Amino acid sequence: MSSTGRSVGPNAPKRAAEPWVRADDPLLADAAREWKSAYVHIPFCAQRCPYCDFAIVDESEVGAGGHDTYIDAVIAEIALEPDFAPLDAVNFGGGTPSRIQPHQLGRVLGVLESRFGLAPGCEVSIEVNPEDWSNVFADGLVAAGFTRVSIGAQSFDETILGVLGRGHGTTLPGEVVTSARAAGFASVSVDLIYGHPSETTMSWDETVTTALELHVDHISTYALTVEPGTALSREVHSGAPRPDDDVQADRYEQFCEASAAAGFDRYEVSNHAKPGYACRYNLATWAHGEYLGFGMGAHDHRWGTRSRNHRRLDRYYSDISQGIRPRLGSETLSTAEQDRDAFMLGLRLGAGVLLSPFARQFLDSDEGSRYLDAGIIRVDAGRLVVNDPMLTDAVARESLSVSAGEC
Amino acid sequence: MDQSRIRNFSIIAHIDHGKSTLADRLLERTGAISQRDMKAQLLDDMELERERGITIKANAVRIDYTTSDGVDYELNIIDTPGHVDFSYEVSRSLEACEGALLLVDASQGVEAQTLANAYMAIEGGLEVVPVVNKIDLPAADPDGVAEELVGIIGGPTDEVVRVSAKSGVGIDELLKTIIETLPAPEGDLEAPLRALVFDSYYDIYRGVVALIRVVDGSVSEGDSIAFMANGVKLTADEIGVRRPAIERTGKLSAGEVGYLITGVKEIDLIRVGDTVTHSPHGASKALAGYAEPKPMVFSGLFPTDGDDFERLREALDKLRLNDSSLVYSAETSRALGFGFRVGFLGLLHMEIVRERLEREYDLDLVATAPSVQYLANLTDGSAVTVQSPQDLPESALVASIEEPYVKVMIITPAEYIGTVMELVQNKRGEMGEMNYLSTERVELHYLMPLSEIVFDFFDLLKSRTRGYASLDYEPDVYRVSELVRVDILLNNQSVDAFSTVVHKDKAYAYGRAMVKKLRELIPRQLFDVPIQAAIGSRIISRETVKAKRKDVTAKCYGGDITRKRKLLERQKEGKKRMKMVGSVEVPQEAFVAALRIGDE
Predict the structure, then answer these.
(1) CB contact under 8 A, A293 and B553
(2) Average pLDDT along chain B
(3) Pick from A7-21, A233-247, B233-247, B577-591: least confident
(4) CB atoms within 10 A of CB A235
(5) CB–CB of A225 and B553 under 8 A?
(6) Averaged pLDDT, A285-304
């Protein structure tokens, strides 16, 4: 895949994000701390997938109406946000953002732009469901200003798509990739889910190979997780097999090997990209950057405060109609607590974290030296890096015993 | 009160057979306590006692009772624990009485514990009144149970009193029987003072409070008194009775039961079983006391956080103020650090002490599997006692090992005789006598190694007999057995806290079951953790806890970092209850895994 065109126009890469920069380059990770992003949550889904516990609105239960009302509410919410910096990345996630017509999405983007401004080379990304896609839809998104698309392919095995409750078949995602390229998206990604008990090494191999043959710029691979309250969780509790950690670790390694051979770098636990194509919004989230969050159930992070919006649509609307921020809650962190968060989040990055006082304190602790001795983490050019991304939470958990504020 | 109008009695009953409820009902019926102040089970003071519905400490309450023809009586109920671990307390209580109520649940029948205590009462020359309780339960068989009772203590079945302590049915008749059947005390009022200390407890405001039964003479506040066994001389500061609230009377005379406060703070100065007399002009001969209770089960208690060692010592010191049967000495474990080897009367006692330490003193403890006290005869002719398997000398130095045996009594429905016999045989028990209590229920006697009982015997007995069998035991002799120590190695390092002494014929099966259980209990770590069982240098079993491969969340919904951090914090909190043994994280329950391997 050629990266021609990425150095001109609105999609010009910013600072370290030149086309030749590896996605896991430490300079990129450090730059990402300073990026300002915005997340827009589109909660609508044609139906809820059995493994999903996100804040969504199931259209099969409430009907497909109400999209315009929702967009109006999000726009009203943006107006309530205090001033921010020009945005380096915008991400429309869900739910299923592709349930909304491009011109409506474009209205939100336009308001973000007029309210905060879009920095040169701003990455504007959207998650899409292959079934919602068409060439007209693609052109509409590009015209609205979207530069990146993330396609929910999940698997290229019919059986797995069936058990995951996905109806788009195995060929549609490829067609979406081609169409997105033709429409002019600068960056194209596919999402995959691995580790369902029905999956086999061969079927996963097939999915990985197919995904790589699509010559996309970015691939996200998520381990299927049994979240409480989901249909999957109910199945497991009534005796269905549970995804196996060891098998998932095998699948992950299998993917990492194949994708590395195809030129992808793992820049975050679940995200892999070719040089120049790290997802900025993703990178900024884990690099402890600030981001605004709009829409039902959205989260944001600015000024050392993390807030979350109502996860119920009626509450969200009710607050908006009264002209108040639709907050469900928030927490304000001390500088020391923010340092701890920066460490905990940065562990997920391929580039690792800078050796902050907090990181040094952890390295000096019994837990830290144990992990160092076991080869699970390493110190490399002034950074602490997790060697085995599959054990990132184990490291993060241990780091909690270094109490925030001790350093 | 004239001695002829005093009745002192205990209530002997199995756990759950309604002893405390009956005591409550008697108190209520005699007006000792108004309905309004009635908390269920007044006699059980301790939080744990109420919670578990068991009595741990003895207790004494005086009630006044006026018969229908207007005669006043003074009744002293001396409550007793109902569990095998605390039978020594029962024996104390019985010494202070002339009679006992043998209380049996009409739906359960006589249990081993009750029978053992009833025999103790009869041997002690007490008059025993058989009482069948819970006669209004649907499953009650008052006639059948009355037959059993008569089989044990003799007498006609129509003398068995039938009550429902819960509803109050039969309580008046029981009070009448107590007055008519139980003998009055016959002490010598004119003789020098002799009073038996049958229990004591520590009160932070009053110091040591002794519960006494005056046998001869009388004692008044201000009297100079002496404790005959240890010669300590003190002044009687306060004298009174419990109703159950404390009531100062200033004096107690022959036949009466009450409390005595001397201002002493050291519980060791006032020993249970000692005789109080006057000084000077005291009695020449003390009353028969009791043997000190001997700890039968030993376990290591270690604070999870090494810094809590001193707090654990202080907590044990405080608990001992009210529990002189508790013995302990500092112990060091390579795996668990500094802690205490603690001796207990039995498994329930162990459980209760541990729970109180954790609950009342806010300690987080690791307990090792219980062990008995072994006697190792060494090749050089000397002998050492071993309370902790890790202290067993090297096998080359040991000529033989002796272990404590106990006399076991099991009462079971006849249909389970085969099951019980098989279980006991499997636990190295030797059959003794067998008596039919009725056509359906049998009393079985065995001689068994105590070590087999302190593991899982009681649970197995209960589960194999669907809860119907009951058990009582008392110490017997030490005997030579072919014992070996099985060590457990974690990550190739022997972990002293896991060492266990078992019979050589069972060592292999034990080792295999233990490593299997540990593999289930020990969470996956950063590296493979081999778990091995060994006798000396010979490895008899091996399992491996495979290294953890995956410990990461796939994604973080919408940037919800707060939720992610809280989840990690919760998980971290859960890990706090782990103990680092070398470089391996071991959950606390692993240290008592031996108790849970069952029949595997």
Answers:
(1) no
(2) 86
(3) A7-21
(4) 17
(5) yes
(6) 95
Q: Are A59 and A90 in contact (CB under 8 A)?
A: no
A24/A260 Cα distance (integer angstroms)? 12
Both tokens of B296, joined, read 């039968």
Summarize the confidence of residues B128-153 as an average pLDDT: 89
A7 dihedral zone (left: phi>0; alpha: psi -120 to 50; beta): alpha
CATH of domain A9-286: 3.80.30.20
Q: Answer with the one of B481, B499, B528 that is the final residue of a domain.
A: B481
- CB contact under 8 Å between B560 and A341, yes or no, is no
Contacts of A54 in chain B (CB under 8 A): 557-558
Q: Which ipTM score applies to this complex?
A: 0.90
φ/ψ of A365, rounded to 5, equals -75, 165
Pairs across A and B, CB distance < 8 A:
94
Residue B290 lies in a domain: no
Q: Is the pLDDT of residue B323 over 80?
A: no
A222–B553 CB contact, under 8 Å: no
Cβ atoms of residues B62 and B76 within 8 Å = yes
Nearest to B593 by CA among B546, B550, B551, B543: B543
Return all residues near B90 (Cβ < 8 A) that are at least 6 apart.
B10, B12, B80, B81, B117, B120
In this predicted structure, what is the pLDDT of residue B34?
Answer: 54
- Of the residues B528, B550, B568, the best mutation for testing chain A's interface (the one with the most A CB atoms within 10 Å of its CB) is B550
Q: Which of B406, B429, B416 is nearest to B467 (CA)?
A: B416
Same domain, B490 and B539: yes
**What confidence category does residue B41 fall into, taking pLDDT thresholds of 50, 70 and 90?**
very low
Instruction: Report helix, strand or coil for B489.
Output: strand
pLDDT at residue number A15: 42
> How sure is the predictor about B291, in pLDDT bands with cuts at 50, 70 and 90?
low
> Does B289 map to a domain?
no
Task: Provide the CA B273 distance to its chain's centre, in angstroms.
Answer: 19
Contact status, residue B211 vs residue B259, Cβ threshold 8 Å:
yes
User: Closest Cα to residue A129, out of A209, A56, A229, A226?
Assistant: A56
